[in-house]
Amino acid sequence: MIVLGVDLSCPVIQILIALALVAGLTVVSLLKFYAYISCGYYRGKVRMNGKTVIITGPTGGLGKETAREIAKKGARVILACRNVESGNRTKDELIESTKNENIVVRKLDVSSLKSVREFAQEINRTEQRLDVLIHNAGTAEKSIKMTEDGLETTMATNHFGPFLLTHLLIDLLKRSGPSRVVVVASELYRLCSLNVNQLNPERSWFPLWIYYISKYANIYFTNELAKRLEGTNVTANCLHPGMIDSGIWRNVPVPLNWPLQLIIKGFFKTPAQACHTSVYLACAEEVEGVSGKYFMDCKERGLSSGAMDMNKAKKLWELSEQYVHLKSQDPKI
Ligand SMILES: *[C@@H]1O[C@H](CO)[C@@H](O)[C@H](O)[C@H]1NC(C)=O
Ligand SMILES: *[C@@H]1O[C@H](CO)[C@@H](O)[C@H](O)[C@H]1NC(C)=O
Ligand SMILES: *[C@@H]1O[C@H](CO)[C@@H](O)[C@H](O)[C@H]1NC(C)=O
User: Fold this and answer.
1) Residue ranges with strand state E in 121-197
2) Mean pLDDT, all residues of the chain
3) Quick one: average pLDDT of 76-81?
4) Distance CA 102, CA 233 (A)
5) d(CA 56, CA 162)
6) Domain segments of the chain: what residues?
7) What values do phi and psi take at 4, rounded to 5?
8) Substitution candidate for ligand 1 out of 83, 88, 103 with most atoms within 8 A of CB
């Protein structure tokens, strides 16, 4: 058989291919081992019985694994889901695997300001306390779509919705202190910069880019939130979960996809590995009282100087208040 001008029936070629495969597997195993010892997994044994945790976007990937780890620790876990049916299935699966029955499903479409208000009202009405709010839900839309509120969908889901939700739950968080807000951002914020005058883009030559911008916004939001919460018992931190092997790379065609697979299998995390930093920030004693920081692999990391620009963070905050139509009777942070 001849492939790309190479005769595959030649024994020398066969041996070379076999060697290449063995070398590839060895590299992957070594990388995996390196990742295992260096990835900053959280193995703390702290229990969360009596605590209540809300997690958005909990029905798949990172969110589901985060919810699972927190349920294992005994917390009451509120799964805030856009799709209640899939939330119900997740709940059953988590109860089965963690034996924690204290898991509830609540409807939340974080891209809709109305849904955020309804969700917050229900939580405020039905929950005695809230110890941790994990902003995990995120989307990367391939085209520009505006929500019913006139907000671009990726920004609405990843930034504006969480911004409003935090306001509406802040009193409950304060009453339950010490409590925590955890924001899933991404190291990929470094690929872009954030123009605070374009928080709600109506057109873009590359809509996927808005995802990175929203992750930048997550960092500004966290920094400004932490600053405004100084002197309270509520902390706010953000994190990079790691690059995740989530299957979105599966569509790359075959010869190209081999080196890519090597990188993905070697370097990328599974959702179960990637949830460690979220879980760490939600419960670890080491970060009690720590606020306004950025974490990766369960360790504090530096931000670019642009991301630490507190003037821009403040501006983002003030403009966001307008975009989400914060009302005078809403709590101010
Ligand atoms: C989800 O579960 C709740 C409680 O068991 C049930 O009342 C509700 O009808 C379920 N919703 C869907 C869409 O499956
Ligand atoms: C939460 O409920 C309290 C009363 O129990 C009320 O004063 C407050 O305005 C409510 N907050 C929100 C955001 O609904
Ligand atoms: C923070 O929490 C601690 C422990 O519950 C409490 O003693 C303290 O008064 C709280 N501080 C504020 C500012 O709420």
Assistant:
1) 132-135, 179-184
2) 91
3) 98
4) 25
5) 9
6) 39-323
7) 50, 40
8) 88
Q: Which atom of ligand 3 lies closest to the CA of 232?
A: 13
pLDDT in tens, 185-206: 999 899 899 999 999 999 888 8
CA atoms within 13 A on the CB side of 63: 25
Cβ contacts of residue 45 below 8 Å, gap of 6+?
none
Helices vs. strands in the chain: H and E counts, helices first: 11, 10
DSSP 225-241: HHHHTTTSSEEEEEEE-
pLDDT digits (tens, 9 = 90+) for 81-123: 999 999 999 999 999 999 999 999 999 999 999 999 999 999 9
Single pTM value for the model:
0.87
Distances (CA, A) of 208 to 152, 215, 260: 12, 12, 20
Q: How far is CA 287 from the centre of its chain?
A: 18
- For ligand 2, atom 14: residue with the closest CA: 121
pLDDT for res 76: 98
pLDDT attached to residue 269: 82
- Name the CATH superfamily for 39-323: NAD(P)-binding Rossmann-like Domain (3.40.50.720)
Task: Out of 127-131, 147-151, 269-273, pick the least confident.
Answer: 269-273
Residue 330 has pLDDT above 90, yes or no: yes
Indicate if the pLDDT at residue 180 is higher than 60: yes
Instruction: Give the helix/strand (H/E) hosting 74.
Output: none
Q: Give the number of C-alpha atoms closer than 13 A to the C-alpha of residue 150, restricted to the C-beta side.
A: 4
107's CB contacts (< 8 A; 6+ apart) are: 80, 81, 82, 84, 87, 115, 118, 119
**Going by CA atoms, what residue is nearest to atom 10 of ligand 2?**
124
pLDDT at 247 over 60: no
- For residue 104, list its beta bridge partners: 78
Considering 211, 216, 294, 323, which one is annotated as catalytic?
A: 211
Strand ranges in the chain using DSSP code E only, listed in sequence order: 2-3, 6-7, 52-56, 76-81, 103-107, 132-135, 179-184, 234-240, 294-296, 299-301
